[in-house]
Amino acid sequence: MTTNLGALLRHPLDQLREPRMGRRLPQLLGGLVLYGLSMALLVQAGLGLDPWDVLHEGLAGITGLSFGTIVILTGAVVLLAWIPLRLRVGVGTIANVVVIGLAADLGLALFPRPEALWLQIAFLVVGTVLNGLAGALYVGTRLGTGPRDGLWVAISSRSGRSVRLVRTVLEVTVLGIGWLLGGSVGVGTVVYALAIGPVVQLFLPRVTVPVAAAGPGADPVPDGERPAPEAAHRP
């Protein structure tokens, strides 16, 4: 986990000084927009959401705010927890907080909630695959992690506790609160949990932007900056 924490502690200017910004910035924006749209597909499927989106949906229901607005506000609140952890906010982190929520609201306006079960399943499957691709796209730009990922990665690194323990405690807590607030928990929650890791792992090597010239067969991602597959699917 020290490699992930090292990436989080990098100065934002160091991220921007790396080459291939002509590809990295558009890929970051495209990945974040796709992430928000895929979230909307999962919401409209109505078959259950991942833990953080269960919380987002529950908060949206009790506050009357839009789903995307809640995504933005939650991301901003989580960023406050970065302060005592001494994490640096990257360009991608700020974009993550704002763009995903706006894109999610756009998707909810564009995608009607299907009535037929086969369409609901299609929304779930397509939304999960696109969500994994989107996560790989923005993580692969190396411009900063999402606020929620940064939280559990840093807590694990600072405390010495295992990633599995820290992430499980956080996500079970978030899921429980979201469920109590009326968020959707169902078969889609299980499908997402089982599928998202392999989907991200499939796409991540293919979309990670090399930051230095690499010879044939060389790994384009330096060892000290390799994003863990499980860290790539949560904004």
Short descriptors:
mainly alpha
Structure commentary:
There is one protein chain. With 235 residues, the chain is mainly α. It has one domain. 70% of the residues lie in helices and 0% in strands. It is globular and about 50 Å long. It starts with a helix and ends in a 28-residue tail after the last helix. The model is unreliable at 213-232 (pLDDT under 50).
Offer a concise description of the structure.
The chain is an all-alpha fold and 235 residues long. It has one domain (2-209, 224-231).
Please give the number of β-strands. 0
Number of domains: 1
Which radius of gyration do the C-alpha atoms yield?
Answer: 17 Å
Helical percentage: over 70%
Intertermini distance: 18 Å
What is the H/E string? Answer: HHHHHHHHHHH
Any idea what the shape is? globular
| Unreliable stretches | 213-232
Mean of residue pLDDT values: 82
Biggest beta sheet summary: none
Topology:
Elements: H1 2-9, H2 12-17, H3 21-45, H4 51-63, H5 67-80, H6 82-85, H7 91-110, H8 117-139, H9 147-159, H10 163-180, H11 187-207
Helix pairs in contact: 1-9, 3-7, 3-8, 4-5, 4-10, 5-7, 8-11, 9-10
